[in-house]
Amino acid sequence: DETITLAAGEDKRQIQVPLNDNPYWNVEALMNLRLQILDGEEHCKLGDLYQTRIIILNDDTFPMNADPSNEMAMLKSFLVHNFIQVSTEAKWGLFYNLYP
């Protein structure tokens, strides 16, 4: 969680959202961003766009950045992706869907 404080008369602020890169191929990554007013801050009003979803498209090659000219590396990466990463992604997906 991060707190943003606007000065008197200031009506907008730019923020940076850190992105963590990994070497694994994924279809996409999703992040939710929500603004809220802290208790006791009655002079602030948020509009309709107080929350958004950030979609990060993958920049890695499938499977797991393997060299397409090396068949054994492609096969190994494909197996690692399907037997390790898919189950990990499924667990995280379930967690995010169940988290309120």
List how many beta strands DSSP finds. Answer: 2
Summing up helix and strand content along with how strands pair, one would put the structural category as alpha+beta
Strand order of the largest sheet: 1-2
Query: What are the segments in which pLDDT stays under 50 over at least 5 consecutive residues?
Result: none
Shape: elongated
> Element order, helices and strands?
EEH
Radius of gyration: 20 Å
The helix content is 25-40%
Distance between the termini: 16 Å
Question: Strand percentage, roughly?
Answer: 5-15%
What is the average of the pLDDT values? 78
Number of helices: 1
Sheet with most strands: 2 strands, antiparallel
Polypeptide structure, described:
The protein is α+β, with helices and mostly antiparallel strands. The chain is built from one helix and two strands. The protein has a two-stranded antiparallel ribbon with strand order 1-2. The longest helix is centred in the C-terminal third of the chain and has 28 residues. It is elongated.
